[in-house]
Design brief:
SIP_rossman_dom, 274 residues, 14% helix, Rossmann fold, 4 helices, mainly beta, Elongation Factor Tu (Ef-tu), domain 3
Length: 274
């Protein structure tokens, strides 16, 4: 299997508007953004490219005001990249573009809502007409060869990417999902072709229990002709990576495991549960 390909894009800062916001589950909220700056536009003398996303685990960065002062600090747009001020540093959080419809001019983002999060607090109260600045994606990781089946694993922060993976695969592609969520109310419909194993951690704190690696060990394994993608809490992902690489013996090009967040660090790179 050929190695994954990274494709780099010009980084553009866009001011977008909330079109709709609604709950998918009691703890997952979808915000639909739109605006003229999803297309090509001109700012500060630069011709800026339309919004572009190629891979299910692409990410954009959303910018928020400093909670104590309400002051919004942004990077400055340059030609194909952003210049970041040293002080104060912009407050940004990374999110997966759940779906992008260029024709309709709509970008969908899904947020895990929890107490105390800057981004989740914004999403919980988002209403049509609210404005937000969004940068990226700056790159996409593309799988160049189609495997016999896909394995997608993660906690609730990975569900937007998992949902997009499934939607963008060819119909009938075999895909197994192992997903950890608080409880049955947090399960999402992930498409008719996905064989989903839901793991419920109950009242345990996110990232505090090891459910994913044991579930992967017990999983029916059709063949080693698989592409395995996983994301979630960094410590939990170490166990998932060890299982896939060491216990299953999968080569590096068949495994992509990412720490989306780290327990106890509220901005790594997203807040826990966001």
């Amino acid at each position: 299997m050929a190695r994954r390909e990274r494709r780099w894009f010009p980084i553009v800062l866009r001011e977008l508007e909330v079109l709709r916001a609604y709950d998918l589950t009691p703890r997952m909220r979808r915000v639909v953004l739109g605006g003229a700056e999803l297309g090509a536009f001109r700012r500060y003398g630069f011709d800026l490219t339309p919004f572009h996303t190629e891979a299910p685990d692409d990410h954009v960065k959303l910018f928020f005001p400093e909670p104590a002062t309400g002051v919004l600090t942004l990077p400055e747009q340059d030609d194909g990249h952003l210049d970041w001020p040293d002080e104060p540093r912009p407050i940004g959080r990374d999110y997966t573009p759940r779906r992008f419809d260029a024709e309709a001019g709509e970008l969908e983002l899904d947020f895990v809502v929890h107490a105390g999060g800057i981004a989740s607090g914004w999403a919980a109260s988002a209403r049509p007409g609210d404005r937000i600045f969004v940068a990226g994606p700056k790159m996409a990781t593309v799988v160049p060869v189609t495997p016999a089946w896909y394995l997608l694993t993660g906690d609730e922060t990975a569900l937007p990417a998992i949902g997009r993976w499934i939607e963008e695969l060819a119909p009938g592609t075999p895909v197994k999902v192992v997903a950890e969520v608080p409880g049955p109310d947090d399960e999402l419909k992930l498409g008719p072709d996905a064989e989903v194993t839901w793991l419920h951690r109950g009242d345990a704190a996110p990232g505090s229990v090891d459910l994913l690696a044991p579930a992967l060990r017990a999983l029916d394994w059709p063949s080693d002709d698989v592409y395995a993608w996983a994301a979630g809490e960094t410590g939990v992902m170490r166990g998932v990576r060890d299982h896939l690489r060491k216990e299953r013996g999968l080569p590096a090009e068949r495994v992509n495991v990412t720490g989306y967040w780290k327990r106890g660090e509220s901005a790594f790179p997203s807040e826990p549960g966001e």
